[in-house]
Every structure is written in C-alpha cells, then in structure tokens.
Amino acid sequence: MGFPSEPQKPEEIATAAEQAPQRMEMIPWHYQPPYDPVEQRRRNRREQAAGVKRLLKRFGALSSLSLFAYLALAVVLFLIMTPEIMRGLFSTAGYYDYLFVITPQLVPLVRMDGAVLVGYFMLVVLAITAAYAYIVLSSALPTIREAASGTPGRHSTMLTIGGLFFVAYFITYVNYLLIDAAGISPTTPDFGSAPVWDQIYGSATATVWEEIISRVLLIGVPLLWIDLLFRRESLLPPRRYLLGGGLKFGGVEIGLVVFSALMFGSAHVWSWDVWKITPTIIGGFCFGYLYLRFGLYASIMFHVCFNFLSVPMYFLSDAQAFIVDLVMVFVWLPAGVMFIAYYLLRLRRFLSAPQKKEAASG
Predict the structure, then answer these.
(1) Ranges assigned E (strand) in the chain
(2) Can you say how many angstroms the Cα of residue 80 is from the centroid of all Cα atoms in its chain?
C-alpha cells in the first residue's frame, strides 16, 4: 500500500512553471530533412561501390604480397647461386659478355671477361638485392595495411609494381594463347642448353643493364638535355634524371616513355621473334612509368618480376612447382584483369584532365 505524496506548495509550482521554458531552450535542436528515397538509393550505391573498391584493393595487395614472397625465394636462391656463377665466369674457358646499347638493334660496346666480368656481375647482384630490400623495407607494411583494410589512397610502391606486373603478365599469357591457337611456332632463345648458373647470370645482368640503357639512356639523359637547353625553369639536379623518381608526366616525358618502349620492344625481335614485340612494348610503358614516378630501383624490380620467375623452378619439386602454377593462374591472372580495368579508368581520367597531367598519383 503506497503513501500519498506531499502536495506541492503554490510557490514551488510557480517556480517549476518559470523554469520549464528555460529547460526547453537548453535541448539542442537539429534539422531533420524529409526522407528522400532517391538520395537514399544513391547513398547506398556509393557505399556499395566503396565496399567493392576496398575488397578489390585488398585482393590486389594480397596478390602483390604473394608475388614479393615468391621473389624473396628467387632472390635468396640467386644469392646462394652467386658463388657458383662467379666460379663459372672465371673457370669457363673463353667466356665473355658485352655491354651494349639499343639502336634499336643491339650494338656491342665493351667486351668483358675474367675479373672485369666478375666485378660487373657483383655490381648487378648489389643492384638487385638493394632494389628488393629497399622496396620491402619501405612499402611492405603499407601493403599489409592495404591488404587488411583496403582503405583508398595512394598505392604503395609494392602494390604499384605488383599491379603493373599482373597487367603485363596477363597480356603475355593471352599473347601465348593466341599464338598457340594460330598454330605458330615462335622462335625463342635456346636457354635450356646452357648450365643453370649461366641462365641465372643472363637473367640477372639483363635485369639491370637493360634498365640502364632503356630507361636512363633513353628517358633520363634526353630529358636532362631537353630541360637544360629548352626548359631551364624546370631543370632538376642531374641525379634526378639519372636515377629517376619524382619526375612529372608532361608531354615530353610521355613521349620519351613511348620512344623507350618502342626501342625496348624492337630490340627483342633479334633474339626472340616478332611475337615478342607486343608484350615487351607494353612492358616498356610500365618500366617508363615506374622510372618517372619512383625511380630506377622500381623499374629494376619490375624487371626482376619477369626475369626471376623461372629461378625457383630450377630447384622446386614437381608438386611445389604445381602449387606455384596454381597461384599464377588463379591469383595473378585474375589480378591482371582487375588491374587492367583499373588502369584503363585511370588513363581515361588522366586524358580528360590535361591540367593535372604534371602529377601522377598511385
């Protein structure tokens, strides 16, 4: 049984009545727009598109991490093979190599053998290991974060190299399928007849020297002379032209990238075949882009992606090689399709906004 409350006095009732409007004024008021079903559908579509972009970026980052994990194995095996390669360079009678330039035919400049050849090879080893180590140390964590969250923004160096590799890898794969479907037997160099150490040596030296003659000599040096003679207001320190990285994407720069890619593609005809032109020219565009945006180390690493794919295959068992093939077919090829669509959209936006061409984003 409850007890009746004590009745309020008249003066308390009057005080409460005076304070009521004041309490009403203290309550924050927010405008609530009327429900708009059209705008709500647009908002839902934007959220869904953002979710798809995050998912695709996570897949691209995971694919790039798998690529660099495989390259880690390739680089380690390459370093393990380095003493044997050096012994082969020293002990093989009459073994020599050339430094050459592209005209677009390969023109030998300097013949190397003995200690000179070994010294040159050690510089190649240093360049490859330094490029890989720098990319992993500088962009592995950002790529892992991209794989975990898929947040939008500039791509890490590792993800950019991986994305471009998957594009070129997919195009090369389709090119092989078309040639095979046409019943064509293309001419390829007889790599298999050489010892393993010699094959790895050739892959390593081509990785570094071809980037020097194709990117530094055909993009960096001409750009230095153009800026020195005609665009002194845009002149940069010479090392920026020789090492690349942070260069703008203007008409002159894009023209030099196209020229370098054409020369790079035509140079492969002499040792391969005409069928090699298309994938190497497309690869040349990727090399030039990486050289302008990141630098020589990035284009060298992109070259490693191709030339070192076969290095672990010399040492893996059939079962292990089969697993690698599954990753290439079911991860890297779909990633290539995704990145082709992405870069085509990027290219369309780039061409439709000429005022922003001087700065390329990832």
Answers:
(1) 97-102, 106-112
(2) 26
